[in-house]
Amino acid sequence: MFVRPCWQPTSPQDTRSLIEQHPWALLVSNGDDGPFATNLPLLPNPSSTDPASTDPDSPLILTGHIARANDHALQLANPNTIFLAIFEGPWSYVTASWYPNRDMPSTYYYSAVHCYGHIELQDEPALDTSLEVLTQRMESPISNGWQTNEIPRSEITRRLPGILGFRLHVNRVEAKFKLGQDEPIRDALAVADELDSRGEESSHDLAYLIRHHNLARTL
User: Fold this and answer.
1) Is 179 helix (H, G, I), strand (E, B) or coil?
2) Which residues touch 142 (CB under 8 Å, ≥6 apart)?
3) What gap in Å lies between CA 219 and CA 127, rounded to an integer?
4) What is the DSSP track for 94-109?
5) Is 44 helix (H, G, I), strand (E, B) or coil?
6) What one-character-per-residue DSSP string does the chain give?
7) pLDDT in tens, 120-178
8) What is the Cα–Cα distance from 60 to 147, expressed in whole angstroms?
């Protein structure tokens, strides 16, 4: 990933926060006939409810699962395969008309985290546990969200043999927060104001990141 020094995270916690808040990822690896890519949720482990997950110095482990019928699943069993998990944060096209003097080219503001590592397969009890954690994580923001105990336990267990659970042990992280840090501060903040005026959650989130990553600047 091409990352200018000004686009680096302000702290290791920036990358953890992006993954926590935007867990929908793309898992990529190389195969004999070309790359494999699978879209899936990946949660940091320990879970977000565990205080240890907020420690930026703790090992980053991502937990996920795919269907055993997926050809990509065969690669997960190879301990020598390097996997790449790609996460995207909020992003937006930025028109030059948002800049006060309209004197900068249009561009995109965005954030992304790339995690490289090796796979450890889960046994069925560990998979069962991680699926419960995933369900709680995704359902908790929903009013009257669904719980696994609303259906017979057999409806969960009968599906487990068709699922391959895994943990990605991350040994390298690349993060990019391209949020106007290489532009005049007034232009970056003008973009944040414009995004806030849209009234959309993703736009508010991006506006927050712009201000956060330009906080220490004066020019």
Assistant:
1) coil
2) none
3) 50
4) E-GGGSTT--S--EEE
5) strand
6) ----GGGS-SSHHHHHHHHHH--EEEEEEEETTEEEEEEEE-EEES-TTSGGGG-TTSPPEEEEEEETTSTHHHHHT-TT--EEEEEE---EEE-GGGSTT--S--EEEEEEEEEEEEEEE--HHHHHHHHHHHHHHHHTTSTT---GGGS-HHHHHTTGGGEEEEEEEEEEEEEEEESSTTS-HHHHHHHHHHHHTT--HHHHHHHHHHHHHTTT---
7) 999 999 999 999 999 999 999 999 999 999 999 999 999 999 999 999 999 999 999 99
8) 27
What's the length of the chain?
A: 219
Least confident of 5-9, 52-56, 105-109: 52-56
Name the average pLDDT for the chain.
93
How far apart CA 105 and CA 97 sit, in angstroms, is 9
- The encoded tokens of residue 114 equal 């790339």
Place of tokens 């795919």: 66
DSSP-derived letter for residue 52 is: G
The token duo for 167 is 């943990």
